[in-house]
Write a structure and sequence with these properties.
By secondary structure, this protein is α/β, with parallel strands linked by helices. Helix content is about 40%, strand content about 20%. The chain has 16 helices and 18 strands. The chain has helices spanning about 45-55, 95-105, 110-125, 140-150, 175-190, 210-220, 235-245, 250-255, 270-280, 290-295, 300, 305-310, 330-345, 355-365, 400-410, 435-455; strands spanning about 10-20, 30-35, 40-45, 55-60, 65-70, 70-75, 130-135, 155-160, 195, 200-205, 225-230, 260-265, 285, 315, 385-390, 415-420, 420-425, 430. Strands 1, 2, 3, 4, 5, 15, 16, 17 and 18 form a nine-stranded mixed sheet that branches. A five-stranded parallel sheet has the order 10-11-12-13-14. A four-stranded parallel sheet has the order 6-7-8-9. The radius of gyration is 22 Å and the shape is globular. The model has no long low-confidence stretch (mean pLDDT about 95).
Length: about 475
Amino acid sequence: MTEDTIPTAVDTIVRGWYVVTMNPDRDVIRDGAVAIRDGEIVAVGPRSQITAAYTAAQTIGDDHHVVTPGMVNSHIHVTGEPLTRGYVPDDTPFEENVFVWLCQLYAAYTAPEERLSGQLAAAEMLRSGTTTFLEAGTIRFLDEVIDGLTEIGIRGRVGPWVWDLPPEPDVYRQNTDEAIERLRSSLASHRDGLVQTWSILVGHTTASDPLWRAARDLADEYGTGMSFHMSPAESDPDGFVAEFGHRPMIHLAELGVLRDDVAITHCVRVDDREVAIMGEAGVSVAHCPTTALKVSYGVTQVGKMPEMVQAGVNVAIGTDGNNASNYSDLMRATYLVAGLFKDARTDPQMFPAEKAYEMATLGGAKAMGAEADIGSLEVGKRADVVLHDTDRPEWRPLLNVANQLVWSADGRGVDTVLVDGRVVVDNGHLTTLDEERMWAEAQVAGEAITARSGLPDKAKWPVL
C-alpha cells in the first residue's frame, strides 16, 4: 500500500442503507456513509468509497438505518410550557390562551424549573431528530436555561422575555430602557458555543417603536438574526391599524426592521401587500401548523404560505409551545405542512413531501442564518446527523424515502443523533442525561407550577 492509499483518520463514520444528503441535487445515496472529523463533515458518498478512504475511531449505523441531516425547529418555547404541557384547555381562543393562561403559567416558574423545562424540550427534540432550534424569546432565567441546554448537547439560539408595553404579569414588567438593556446584556453574554443568544422580541403588539428599532440595531451590532411573533390572529393587524393606520408588516418595514435575517412566527393573518413586502425584504416565516389548527387561527382558510413561497419568503417549520402544539416532534409538524394546503386549495401539487422536508431542514437553517453550517449533509458543514431505524412497521416497505420521512414516519423511529459530531442520542435514548430522573422531576415540577399559578384545573373528565 502506497502512502497515497493509506486511509485518512477521522473520528466517526456513519453508515446507512440510504443517506439523504439534502445537497443542491438532493442526492440520496444508497449504501452511503458520512465521515466526520472534529465535528465537521469531511466526506459524503458511497459506503465503499468512504470506508476505503477513511479509518474511524468509531463506526455507527447499519443496513437498516436511513441517515438524514438534523432537522431545524424554527420556533419553540423551551420554557414556560414544557412543564405545563396540556394544562391549558384546548377550547380557549387566542387572547385568552396567551394572556389569561400562558403568561400566568410562565410567571410561576422558578429558575431550576426553567432549566429543567429547557432540558425536557431539548430531550423531546433530540429524540425525534431535531438538532437545532430557534427559541421564542420567552425565557426568564437565561443563564440557567443555557447551562441546561449546553449540558444536554443541543444546538440553539435563545433569548430573554423582552417587551415594554404590557404591564402584567409583574415579573415581566419592564420599561423601554430596561427592555433594551435586557436584550443588550443577553447578546453580550452568550456569543459562543452551541447555544447562543439572538435579538428576539415577544412581538405582537407588545413593543414600542423605540424597542423595535433597538432590537434591529442590536441584531446588526452583534451579528445575529432577529425574531418575533406576529399576526396569528386578527388582534395584531387590528392593533397596528388602530395605532398606526396600517398593518404590521407595513409598519415594521417603515421602521427598517424587516430584512433577510428576520424570522417571523405565525403570519397567518397577512394580506397580499404584506406578503409582497415580506418577499421583497427576504424574511423567513416560522409556520407552526399544529398551533394554527388547535388555536383556530384559520390557516387553511386565509393562510398565504403558498403565496409567501412564490413571493420569495423562506417558509420554515416550528412546533411552538406545548399548550398550543402539545408536542415538539418536528416530523409530525412537517407532515401537517405537507397536507394542510393540499386540502385547503384542493391541489395535490401543494407542498410536496420533498418541499416540506426541505422546509424542516434547509428552510430552518436559512431562517437562522446558518445555511452554511447545518441543514444538509455536505462537506464542510457541522455534523448534525440523524439515523432513523427502518426496522419498524411504519418504515416498511421502504420504496420512497421522502414520502416515508414525511407521510409515514415520525420521531419515534429516531435511533441515533449526533450534534456537532457528538452522539447525544443512542438507541433512542439520551447519552447526556439520566432520562428516568428527568421524567420524575418533570412530573413533580409540573404539578407544583400549575398549583402555584392559581389557575383552575379544567380537565373535563373526572379523575377518581
